[in-house]
Design goal:
With 215 residues, this protein is mostly helical. 43% of the residues are buried. 66% of the residues lie in helices and 3% in strands. A two-stranded antiparallel ribbon has the order 1-2. The protein is globular, with a radius of gyration of 18 Å. The protein contains eight helices and two strands. Helix 1 runs parallel beside helix 5, helix 3 crosses helix 4 and helix 3 packs across helix 6.
Length: 215
């Protein structure tokens, strides 16, 4: 899903950089806490590895990007986490492009922020099934939004990329399903072993017996 160098126009690349750097700075300044650094490092590594393994598909390629999972676990810090992962991928493996790091960050970071915001509203429910369902929804929504933003960015590159944008969007339908399952399973696992990692504070006396984590 990464956009390579030479695809986007200079104004789009520059604008992408400015908005991405500004958004990352705001997220770090307002939400970053030192005790979250280990979790941020782990999720940045997960994103780095998952999104670097691409499967060629016609004129484009597909891979896991996990914006939903990163957003669910990191909240607002998902944006700078994804930006760091993209910078490392571009510098170490020439995956994506240096000029498009800003645009690629917006493409994957905005969906992560959206997923984190949605999950934040649901995680207080103390209902295991609802929280897992929200996780799966965030996983699917994150990839769907990333695909839509990718298509919009490619459209700005001219009519030649219109066909690629359509193929890229269609190619990510199976990825949406996979990421929904991955994120839902990950949320279910974290609820069992360490719910505080996803900001869930369980109150056993409020849990429905049918969905109790102790069962």
């Amino acid at each position: 899903m990464h956009i390579s160098d030479g695809v986007l126009s200079n104004p789009v690349c520059i604008g992408g950089y400015l908005v991405a750097i500004g958004a990352a700075a705001i997220c770090i300044r307002k939400t970053m806490e030192s005790e979250d650094l280990p979790k941020i490092a782990v999720m940045t590594s997960v994103f780095f590895v998952a999104s670097i393994i691409s499967v060629p598909l016609g004129p484009t390629s597909v891979h896991l990007i996990l914006p939903g999972l990163v957003g669910v676990t990191l909240g607002a810090m998902a944006f700078p986490s994804i930006m760091l992962g993209l910078i490392l991928q571009a510098l170490l493996f020439q995956h994506g492009g240096l000029t498009t790091i800003g645009a690629n960050t917006l493409m994957m970071g905005i969906p992560a922020l959206t997923a984190g915001l949605i999950f934040h509203q649901v995680r207080r429910s103390n209902n295991r099934k609802l929280i897992i369902a929200a996780g799966a929804l965030c996983g699917a929504l994150g990839t769907l939004l990333a695909g839509i933003i990718l298509a919009l960015l490619l459209v700005t590159a001219g009519e030649n990329f219109l066909g690629v944008a359509k193929v890229a969007l269609a190619a990510h339908v199976p990825v949406i399903i996979i990421e929904a399952a991955v994120t839902g399973v990950a949320v279910a696992f974290l609820l069992k072993v360490k719910p505080d990692l996803i900001g869930v504070r369980l109150k056993n006396d409020c849990l429905n017996s049918s969905v109790s984590l102790d069962s």
